[in-house]
Design brief:
Elements (H helix, E strand, L loop, with lengths): L11 E6 L8 E5 L1 H4 L7 E6 L3 E11 L11 E4 L8 H13 L4 H8 L6 E9 L11 H13 L1 E3 H8 L5 H9 L3 E9 L4 E8 L6 H10 L4 H13 L5 H4 L4 E2 H4 L6 H9 L3 E8 L17 H16 L2 E6 L5 H14 L3 E5 L2 H4 L2 H10 L3 E4 L5 H12 L5 E4 L11 E7 L17 H11 L3 E6 L4 H8 L4 E5 L10 E6 H6 L9 H12 L3 E5 L8 E4 L16 E3 L4 E3 L6 E3 L12 E4 L3 H11 L5 E4 L9 H10 L5 E4 L12 E6 L2 H5 L6 H13 L10 E6 L5 H7 L3 H14 L6 E10 L2 H19 L4 E12 L2 E11 L5 H17 L7 E6 L3
The protein binds a DNA duplex (12 and 12 nucleotides) through strand 1, strand 2 and strand 3.
Amino acid sequence: MTEDIFSVETTYFADVILPVPIPRMFTYRVPRHFVADIKIGARVIVQFGRNRVVTAVVGKIHTKPPEKYQAKYILELLDTDPLITEAQLWLFEWIAEYYMCCIGEVMNVAVPSGLKVSSQSRMQLNPDFDHPELLEEKEIEFIEILKVHNSLTYDDAIKFIGEKNINPLIKSLISKHAIIMYEEVKEKYKPKVAKKIRLKRGYEGSEEVLNLIDSLTKSPKQQTIILEYLRYVPINELAEKNNLGIDKSALKQGEISDSALSTLIEKGILEQFEVIVSRFGDDTPEEPLKITLTDAQQAASDDIIQNFAEKDIVLLHGITGSGKTEIYIDLIQKVLDGGSQVLYLLPEIALTTQIVVRLKRVFGDKMGVYHSKFSDNERVEVWRGIVDGRYQFVVGVRSAIFLPMDNLGLVIIDEEHETSYKQFDPAPRYHARDVGIMLGLKQGAKILLGSATPSIESYYQAKTGRYGLVTLNQRFGEAQLPDIQLVDLKAERKAKNMKNDFSSILFNQIHQNLQNKEQTIIFQNRRGYSPYLNCQECSWVSECQQCAVSLTFHLQSKELRCHYCGHKEEVPKVCPVCGSGKIRTIGFGTEKLEDDLKIMFPTARTQRMDLDTTRTKNAYQNIISEFEQGGTDILVGTQMISKGLDFDQVSLVGIFDADRMIHFPDFRASERAFQMLTQVSGRAGRRAKKGLVMIQTNNTQQSLLQKVVTNDYIGYYNDEILEREGYMYPPFARIISITIKHEEEEKAEKAAHWLANKLLEKLGKARVLGPEKALIERIRNKFLFDILIKLEKDKLNIKAAKSFLREKIDELHQTKEHKDVDVVVDVDAV
DNA sequence: AGCACGCCGACT
DNA sequence: GTCGGCGTGCTC
């Protein structure tokens, strides 16, 4: 906003992005005193609706007054430098359009809530009020309270009055001009401060200090404090170092009493002051790590760089344990040296582990970490660190793509096949891999995708030459790929060899492994003890009241839990239908395997790692550290254990329920099964020792399993790509999944049919599948119907198709019968 | 999404 | 007669 600031007559308007799911911007008037400073990307505070005050981001500045309504004024301008860069705004808009959501929803996930503003309505007396005779008794009472407290929030007022509904009272007082409401606006971000202690001026000379100590002989406690202080700040360095002071907490380590310390402060000898510190500490990294690549790694690295000369995107297909991280580090180093920024994306779980420590040792404080378990304040610090140029390199999870980097030279997306890169629940339902690619391309960066089991989509792009392809077929160092064996459950059952759910072959191997003092991993991708309970007399099954799924039995918490809506209930002692006590568990989850193992191997140290044991911030890390240090013999876990963890001493991996993964009714089931089996197998035998993997299955002839055994990714890919082509699934088509929800099944079904028919008219029936009942037909008391749209990549104008879809959904919501159904659109659903 | 307005049931 | 239930519609 520079060109027109002299034309005082011009009125400016700003179209702002509000954090609400409404697919448009809102126009506000720019007050004259903000005209000179307001910029696109700056945060503003505006009133939205009658009583809401929200933080918005300026998307556009113009002079065209809205025709149909009176624009409200912007209340406050929060940034003189834009918080959101133009590059980010562009990306937000791209996401909103591509994933068919509102830009406000994108803004909501992108901006850490620490950068949003909290506002609270406060009320106070109107100093000009001079008609007390207008007030009623209740009102006078409240005015008296307000006189004592100066100002109150709404909640305060409720407490003092002792009633829930104070609205009429407040409204009446406002209309009588007895009180006024105002908004207190404050930033949520609070810098972290450290309390520090130093000698007050006049005492920091060596002579003065010695005199001071002498003078304190009668107050030995105080003397000790001064002496303690001098341990940290030696007397001969007082002149330079006293100013910095020392942490109050450090001083209080010794036998220091609080009262003696405060006496010294009161006497004006010591003083306490506060400094703003980083939440990430200034942990001086342990000795810096220098990476040397093996020949194979070096070759791959060279290959990647060569590919980058022609292609923006390269897929690195490196088998588990091939040491992809070292290659990344080497590349990151090079890009940073060239003065560009680097973004390194990892799936959530892989980030909590050793990798951050390792990266920190290489990159020190140039590196920012962005994790979802971080608090808001920590996120804001990473954000600010990037803006201030402190962080040239960020390693982070999915949402790190929203950080304000504007000079990217390299984007790395590790474990690119991971479906957790796709946000599912609240919109925007974006895929961080695809957005990361977009983000990188826009900034002229190179993009490196890495995986041992690439997604079919990415591998296809590489095979057809759109991405470069680099393959790394050799494990790092001495390590070899494990032997993978299929255990024939049918035969084991026939021979009556099963011990609970363990085949004798696996059982014996675990036993052997324990004797050898080697570690075992047991993989079962299902948590809880058993997926349902069943009455032997009347065939009752534990079911969720709100969802069409069974309730999982959790032994540890002694509960039945719904994994979809979170509903919990007590475990019934007798069958709730027939009163029989013969209730049994059916099927098994991690809890049961853990339980069985504890019974079968009572002396083994067994640990479980799944969502239930890793709820708290450090639980995950603790389990892993314990395992790494050899404190655990057998680790039982869900897919959590398969994500990029390096365990050196694991010589046996046992895999349960592989068949269920393979036969899941979804076109991606086999892809996911292959990836999961290969990744979990990859945890075995990572150093020198050759590991063993045992997969229990009812069908040892299964072709997918055969490919897992021979580690034949390409063979698997060749099979799968034919299927995909035959049925027009990705990568040959884009899919958009539409879910219609309503409490009444019939309403949901009818609306779904209405919409599907409308879509059919234009798209044809090859492109519109369904509607059909969702796999889980009811969740949280809403019935779900799915429509799947397949849009061929080459022949179709995807943008036009999407806007057509948008139109039809709007139309649906305008018809009387269907307007109250929920419609969820998921572009590129995984 | 929130939030107010508005029109119907069960209570002082 | 009022409180308060949640359906409906709007927000610059």
